[in-house]
């Protein structure tokens, strides 16, 4: 039994790691927001945001895997509610990014027009992040080993946390590297508006699909 379990777990590690990497490194709300935060606030002030994404998404996978996904099967209307809530909150975040001042642009009284996400804000955001729902539901459905559901879920959480961290950190670092080219308020403003537009664009596939998992 143990040998069979070990073989099953080993078989899913490589494809699970590949899935985690591809889904974590590709553009999405988290990565775009972290890039914008890196540009406007730097790596140090974005660390709570990074940690919140990593821990919050790992916790989300664990909770969804323990049975929350059944809610969508029993009450499909909850998918529509989640989509609308996600759209509203992402639109609000896009507005905040578009109007973020960052360290480059300060007014006469030295006040800033934006603040980086806190740890709790970033962790809570995963629950209205459509890409996070797709990633969590897909990972659980694809990589759960029959008879070893709890062990599979633990493995999925660990693999995603390990791989997700350097992926999202790379987007933050990309944002900080862009700061040298955004040395004027006008350039920074243009970047923030562009990042806000890309954030809104991540909603397009959600509303074109029949559900979060498709």
Describe this structure in words.
- With 214 residues, the protein is an all-alpha fold.
- The protein has one domain (46-102, 110-208).
- 77% of the residues lie in helices and 0% in strands.
- It contains 8 helices and no strands.
- It has helices at 2-25, 29-74, 77-98, 119-125, 130-143, 149-178, 185-201, 204-208.
- Helix 2 (29-74) packs across helix 5 (130-143).
- The two termini are 35 Å apart.
- Residues 104-112 have low confidence and may be disordered.
List the helices and strands and how they pair.
Layout (H helix, E strand, L loop, with lengths): L1 H24 L3 H46 L2 H22 L20 H7 L4 H14 L5 H30 L6 H17 L2 H5 L6
Defining key terms:
0% strand, mainly alpha
With helices defined by DSSP (H or I, 4 residues minimum), what is the helix count?
8
Number of strands: 0
Note the gap between the termini: 35 Å
Overall mean pLDDT stands at 81
The largest β sheet comes out as:
none
Content of β-strand: under 5%
How many domains comprise the coordinates?
A: 1
Flag low-confidence runs: 104-112
Alpha-carbon Rg, integer: 19 Å
Structural class: mainly alpha
**Helicity level:** over 70%
Order of helices and strands: HHHHHHHH
Shape: globular
